[in-house]
Amino acid sequence: MRFYALLLAFVLALAAPPAGAYTARIKDIVDIEGVRKNQLVGYGLVVGLNGTGDSLGNAPFTEQSLIAMLERLGVNIRGQNLNTGNVAAVMVTAALPPFAGQGTTIDVNVSALGDASSLQGGTLLVTPLLAADGQAYAVAQGAVNIAGFTAGGAAEEVTQNTPTAGRVPGGGTVEKEIAFTLADLPQVRLSLKNPDFTTARRIADAVNAYAGRDLAVAENGTSVRLSAAPDQSIVETITDIEQLPVRPDQVARVVISERSGVIVMGANVRISEVAIAQGNLTIKVTETPEASQPEVYASDSFVQSGAETVVLERTDVEVNQGPDTKLAVLDGGVTLQDLVTGLNRLGMQPRDIITILQAIKAAGALQAEIEVL
Question: Confidence class of residue 142 from pLDDT cuts 50, 70 and 90?
Answer without folding.
Answer: very high
